[in-house]
Protein 1
Amino acid sequence: MDNSSEYYIVDKRVLPEVYIKVVEAKRLLEQHITSSVQEAVDIVGVSRSAYYKYKDYVSRLSADTRGSTVIIAFNLKDEAGLLSNVLNVMAESGANILTINQTIPINGIANVTISMETGNMKKQLGELINEINGIKGLKSMKIIARE
């Protein structure tokens, strides 16, 4: 199963309007201009279902992207040293690990959430994600938040 991601920088003039509206709704929520998803999607004119479908996959590239915090959720096989391998790849990239939360493995799979600061990374986040995806024993990985 190939669960690697590729990242692109695309001029917003060629993006489908729904992506731009989802990014704007996210901005309204992040800046506390609106207090609910429903209010944000009503303002920008996109459906809640479209918002939830795309919100984790579209974001705006900005000057403050460097130095941001990224939270990634993993499902890892219960194998000795696997989490250490993931952490080593992150450390080699220059990421600063802030927190690690891990569940007790159930049915041979451990859920791990790692937050990291990306300001001093030597490579792009997409490169790091693809490198981690190549680690044997990784079942799934998803970026769940970016600040």
Note: The mean pLDDT is 88.
Protein 2
Amino acid sequence: MHDPFRERSALRLDGKVALVTGGSRGIGAATARALAIRGARVVVTHRDSEEGALTTLRSLEGEGHRVLRADAADTVQLERMAAELTGIEGRLDVLVNNAARTRVIPHGDLEALDDELFDLIMRTNVRGPFATIRAVRPLLDADGGGVIVNLSSLAATAANGSNVAYCASKAALDNMTLSLARALAPRVRVMSVAPGLVDTELTKGWDPERRRSMIERTPLGRLATPEDVAAAVVAAVTSLPSTTGAVIPVDGGRILG
């Protein structure tokens, strides 16, 4: 009987190409590093954070990594990025849709969440991953197929995130993950990784009392780190060959709290 765990090469990504959108900091940067450690050539995209993306690039093990500019809310830029990736690499094995937008707005403050911001969050967090997948699908379909991991959030189900639109966008992303897992099978697997509160620049700026309360309600008693989330992404790519259409929580057991 075939046992993938007896083949150490099954957990490696040597010769593979991985695209991480929004990889200039936080979860995106940690995911890029984790994929590079396992041998992948990593392409990091950024919207307007070239310096951060280059910092991520310099932190990656191995060779052949690169930075491309693409705003997840701009389909034309995404298509241009995909064409450039096709010309440079000619293949894509892993896509991590990490790029997202949000702003902390109390859920009861409906006036502060104006139409412009609401639409921008939806364009970036929902249409952006879809448009990225659409643009690179020919590359993912080639050479035996690929894996897509969408970065979602516990907010998709708990409805308790940075603002109402952000929560709704992540719920839509998870639903889209299920639809695309069905539509792109069997050549492409599609999953979501859904962190709870993660110790990033964004959450470090939150009210300390709110952070403390959330930690106390988490059975594991700590915030997830970007590296924790990156580990889940890598596991989805390398260790779950029969899994698609799943949402993998990285929340310290928050639902149990």
Note: The domain at 4-198+226-246 is CATH 3.40.50.720 (Rossmann fold).
Protein 3
Amino acid sequence: MHHNDTRPDDSAVPEPYRLGSYVYELPEERIARRPAAQRDASRLLLVDREAEAAEPKAFADLPELLAARFPRGGLIIANNSRVFPARIYGRRATGGRVELLLLTPLPLLHVKPLPGSGHSAEAEGLVRTAKRMKEGETGIFDAPEGMALSVTLLERGDYGRCRLRLEWQGDLETILNEIGHMPLPPYLEREDDASDRERYQTTYADAAKAGSVAAPTAGLHFTPQVRQALAAKGFQWAEVTLYVGYGTFSPVREADIRQHRMHAEYVEVPGATAEAVRRAKAEGLPVVAVGTTSARSLEGMHAALGQVGPFAGETGIYLYPGCAFHVVDALLTNFHLPESSLLIMVSALAGRERIRAAYDVALAQGFRFFSYGDAMLIV
């Protein structure tokens, strides 16, 4: 995994804010190209902020580890958004291929009826063609019997993002489920296959929340058995929705990480979840976020409202060392890319040097990295 060699000069920037502080060397073979044989068979690195060193454990130990640290139980918050098969292939009127990655979550599309029985909606997406597609040009996509889908490029934006108009006959989600591919992270360097349909998705993803273009990966390790064991130890479960956007793969490019402009993602914290958080806080019980997306939902909600409460809207919250966490007490997360806003966020929670040392342990102990890799528990 090579880091960016054209890195800006950051020698004058104080250590915790220096982009170069978030670089580590990862041998290619340590990137998990495929999921573990079983979801909960992955490994877990325990990072206890009161202990000296990080300790290798098994993910199946999670209920015991949390109970040992929090004997009175606590509240676990997970992101129930569903990855949708957002990558589709079609053709142009000229006959060339067109590849589209749809970025707008399906529940957030403003759907308008078309004359006859069709529908249309504007969306954002990334378009890839051999020869540049012109504004106003349309691509045609295969669809199941009796259905149809076409996509017109309306306007080009930054970083390859385009404004598009989708027009379809039939049910859009059915069409995408039929023709779409799971949008695996670029660094996996492989096409998706049938098993990714199941494994690049949490077991608790909500069918009504189809809109993420990347999985909330810390949740991939959970099985119903692990959840039952957690409940038996007094850990309640509540859910938020954050539609994971493509910006999650954008590296930080600023020499001083404080200058980074964070991408926004759409978040929903339902009333029942907000109430569960308020109750946990009142009783002095820990709020344990499953993944950086759940943490971002809770902290984004707090930043928007100034307190804990129901929230629906975009958050562009950016957490780096020196920023306070107002809601999240503990975090389960996977291992993140060098120079990523996610590595910076976990460093904000646990301290840059502690995370650095933990990654060194993970590298020395043969842990698997990134989306399909092993997990870390920060308590």
Note: The mean pLDDT is 95.
Protein 4
Amino acid sequence: MSQNNNSKKLFLSTDGGARGNPGPAALGFVITDESGSVLVERGRYLGETTNNVAEYSALIDGLATALELGATDMVIKMDSELIVKQMSGEYKIKQPHLQELAKEVRVLLSQFTTYKFEHVLREFNKAADAQVNIAIDEALGK
């Protein structure tokens, strides 16, 4: 695939988690370039919410950060099969609050030239998961 000089392909790994569901929750994401160098690693505590809200929040924060970095092409890796399938249209999004979050994601996605979702197994998403746990532990004083 040829790329013009103005394109910038980045890789986004995201994760969200709640201890309890709902419970204390956080998002985490890692953005890397094509060589695998980490550009951004971030976690953010969300307060009491559900796992799915945390997963969508991680995707939103990660995509917004990738846009700030000048990304034009995205590969998005998530261990949430539900969200990958909801974003690809395979699954309907029934809950109104998740529909709103999905709308935010679509607005962000529309700003990229290309994007692709990849479902990955949890063991291949450890860096983003670590950001989630660090943020929750810090918020809970652990």
Note: The chain has one domain: 9-134.
